[in-house]
UniProtKB/TrEMBL annotation:
GO molecular function term, any single one: oxidoreductase activity, acting on the CH-CH group of donors, NAD or NADP as acceptor
Keywords from the UniProt entry: Oxidoreductase
Domain Enoyl reductase (ER): start-end pairs: 43-365
Domain of life: Eukaryota
PANTHER family associated with the record: OS06G0602900 PROTEIN (PTHR43205:SF12), PROSTAGLANDIN REDUCTASE (PTHR43205)
Name of the molecule in the record: Enoyl reductase (ER) domain-containing protein
Pfam families, per database record: ADH_N_2, ADH_zinc_N
Length: 371
């Protein structure tokens, strides 16, 4: 069974929101926007809940699709899209800037309620890039894939069977090329990606240490997820010394989700020909603090390979990732960590909480049930 933390806010019944206008059925549609660009740590006051209406019909000949959103993925990279300017914004479509008052899009699972596109029918379940709203008007290009009936909960397709899972799988296996008995360090190991990296590493037979921001998370890593060791980075005055304590013979693989001082300390403790997969740099997303400056001497003489990556780089291994991860789920070899809140109203606090370390595992917003 998945480990879920569920915070229930009201989920309105659809029937109470429907009304007719000019012969067309309309529904109220709540959605979230930013009030202004966000340059530092986000606050709930940076966001605004708006209410509009959407007609549950499409014009004759249109290929528009109307989707009722069921689950919305909360991902920290969106903060870089909310800035006035970020070097990430021009690199890939997923990183396109978000402007004040503009609807925010991201990974969403929804159900088709109306379709002018012959490829999608009413009641199809779809995963795509839709708005942070109760309903989304989309084109075929917004849809990543149709979700067929599955033995797993729909929400898994936003986390362990989605881009977070692919990031963990591809970053670890494809980039780091780990071997059994190697020493692996994972930062933000209770996050949506980090917890999976650690579990994959243990299944391979590696020695795994993770760090997290609370003693509760440290115990979860060791007792529930099977990490060999874990530590609370907030209790460590010297990260370099902390890593020497857990890796007296050095680190073979470091899976980086934070950047900053943690990356510096990891590089200082790497073994010869160590590999570093840089999945995220959350410590550098929310302020002008000191950026990571790992020792270039260490990198050169230890021949350390450091590589940044995006899940989109590895769509060619998605089928392999999905098959293996599904098998691990069926046999109970992988534990699922989900942290679920409910209702569009909960989006601001859920998103802000990502930067406080509030979430355990994948943070998801539940808007409506599948039926």
């Amino acid at each position: 069974m998945p480990l879920r933390s569920i915070n229930f806010v009201s989920i309105e019944k659809e029937s109470s929101k429907k009304r007719k206008k000019g012969g067309k059925m309309e529904v109220k549609n709540k959605y979230i926007v930013i009030k202004h660009h966000i340059e530092d740590a986000p606050r709930e006051s940076n966001f605004e809940l708006k209410t509009g209406t959407i007609a549950l019909s499409v014009a004759p000949g249109s290929d528009d699709i109307i989707v009722k959103n069921l689950y919305i993925s909360m991902d920290p990279y969106h903060i870089n899209r909310m800035k006035f300017s970020s070097s990430s914004q021009g690199t890939i479509s997923f990183a396109a800037p978000i402007h004040p008052g503009q609807t925010i899009d991201g990974a969403v699972i929804g159900k088709v309620v109306v379709s002018g596109n012959s490829k999608f029918q009413k009641d199809d379940l779809v995963l795509g890039v839709f708005t942070w709203a109760e309903y989304s008007l989309v084109k075929e290009g917004n849809i990543i894939k149709r979700l067929e009936s599955s033995e797993f909960p729909l929400s898994y397709h936003l986390g362990i069977l989605g881009f977070n899972g692919l990031s963990a799988y591809a970053g670890f296996f494809e980039l780091c090329k780990p071997l059994k008995d190697e020493k692996v360090f994972v930062s933000t190991a209770c996050g949506a990606v980090g917890n999976l990296v650690g579990q994959y590493a243990k299944l391979l037979g590696c020695y795994v240490v993770g760090c997290a921001g609370s003693n509760k998370k440290v115990e979860l890593l060791k007792q529930t997820l099977g990490f060999d060791e874990a530590f609370n980075y907030n209790e460590e005055k010297d990260l370099n010394s902390a890593l020497k304590r857990y890796f007296p013979d050095g680190i073979d693989v470091y899976f980086d989700n934070v950047g900053g001082e943690m990356l510096e300390a990891a590089v200082a403790n790497m073994r010869l020909f160590g590999r570093v997969a840089v999945c995220g740099v959350i410590s550098e997303y929310t302020g002008p603090g000191r950026k990571a400056a790992p020792s270039m001497l260490e990198i050169v003489y230890k021949r350390i390979n450091i590589r940044g990556f995006l899940a989109a780089d590895f769509l060619h291994v998605f089928e392999d990732f999905s098959a293996k991860t599904s098998d691990y789920l069926r046999t109970g070899k992988l534990k699922v960590l989900e942290d679920i809140s409910s209702g569009v109203e909960s989006i601001p606090s859920a998103f802000v909480g990502l930067f406080r370390g509030d979430n355990i595992g994948k943070k998801i917003i539940n808007l409506a049930e599948e039926s």
